[in-house]
Design the sequence.
């Protein structure tokens, strides 16, 4: 199909996770074709875009922005474009869309301010879903020191949440892109910890472990906005239950200073959505495993993800969307070989080349799995 594979997988009757995996060079013609294909799926199902994220080389950003503007579903809302080159070729690597079906005319809106569209809000069954896109620490085109940008980014996210009667406590998931991650990750963690502590997610004493932190991915990448860091966030309020995933073989990330949960379960009436954080080959004490051995790291990561979702009754076949991060594009063949051996040759994933938070780590992935409602599939 015009150089890409399209996955459109349901999460209950009114949510759809769409993944476009680019199979060859993703230049302007492919960008136009994939946006048209996604728009066609949305039209056929009467759905709207809640969250939109595209990965590709930065020189392809104008082509993608122009392609999406031709379709009303995209044009009215914000999106994130993240540097993530395809392992082979150039241009787009893939697109991820979280689509929803509004129950009524006032059940969906674009959130904006003086800077333009900043997110989208969806109301359903007594709950409110707020997806923020492209939030960064350089408002109004100004400049800030690298040390202040992460704090400003989290502050901007909190301000937007509060404008919708939500807060940091309602965050289910964050996605963070950090330019120069090997030198900036500790600073990002410090800013995140400070913001979460001020919001009450992290005990002030520092001795007690947090009861709740959102799921998160943080990889090394730039965005067209420039600056050190940028983020997306999903917050949910109202009649829905949100709990951390506690299964799996890895220790809580908080144990070595990272303020996020390994995963979050969003319990809805029809299903449970399992948001798996960015996951790499790390042992029970937080140490990196298999330095320099990408095959072993892929195997280890698959096992960690498998064990985490298995605790909620999910299997790999329940994954609706995933992102695979390779530090080196040349490792694609190794990843493909291991994925096929695990039965994941047709995983609905975007595969990108991006930096990872530790020099010795060569592979990371995140995922979203969906299983039946509370009590089913166990």
Sequence:
């Amino acid at each position: 199909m015009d150089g890409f594979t399209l996955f459109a997988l349901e999460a209950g009757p009114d949510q759809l996770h769409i993944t476009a995996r680019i199979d060859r060079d993703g230049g302007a013609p492919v960008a136009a074709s994939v946006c048209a294909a996604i728009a066609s799926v949305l039209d056929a199902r009467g759905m709207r875009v809640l969250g939109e994220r595209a990965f590709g080389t930065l020189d392809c950003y104008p082509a993608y922005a122009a392609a999406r503007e031709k379709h009303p579903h995209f044009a009215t809302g914000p999106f994130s474009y993240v540097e993530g080159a395809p392992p082979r070729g150039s241009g787009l690597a893939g697109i991820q869309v979280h689509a929803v079906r509004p129950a009524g005319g006032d059940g969906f809106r674009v959130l904006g301010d003086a800077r333009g569209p900043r997110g989208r809000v969806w109301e359903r069954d007594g709950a409110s879903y707020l997806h923020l896109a492209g939030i960064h620490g350089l408002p109004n085109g100004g400049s800030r020191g690298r040390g202040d940008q992460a704090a400003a980014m989290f502050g901007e996210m909190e301000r937007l949440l509060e404008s919708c009667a939500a807060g940091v406590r309602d965050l289910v998931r964050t996605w963070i892109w950090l330019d120069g991650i090997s030198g900036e990750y500790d600073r990002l963690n410090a800013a995140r910890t400070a913001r979460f502590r001020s919001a009450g997610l992290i005990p002030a004493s520092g001795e007690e472990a947090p009861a709740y932190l959102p799921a998160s991915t943080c990889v090394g990448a730039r965005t067209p906005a420039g600056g050190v860091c940028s983020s997306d966030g999903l917050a949910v309020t109202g009649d829905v239950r949100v709990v951390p995933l506690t299964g799996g073989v890895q220790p809580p990330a908080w144990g070595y200073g990272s303020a996020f949960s390994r995963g979050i379960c969003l319990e809805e009436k029809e299903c449970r959505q399992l948001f798996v954080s960015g996951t790499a080959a790390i042992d029970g004490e937080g140490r990196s495993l298999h330095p320099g051995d990408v095959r072993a790291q892929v195997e280890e990561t698959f096992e960690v993800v498998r064990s985490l979702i298995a605790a909620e009754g999910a299997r790999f076949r329940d994954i609706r969307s995933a992102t695979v991060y390779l530090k080196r594009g040349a490792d694609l063949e190794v990843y493909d070989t291991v994925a096929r051996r695990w039965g994941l040759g047709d995983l609905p994933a975007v595969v990108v080349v991006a930096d990872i938070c530790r020099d010795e780590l060569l592979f990371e992935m995140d995922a979203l799995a969906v299983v039946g409602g509370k009590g089913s599939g166990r």
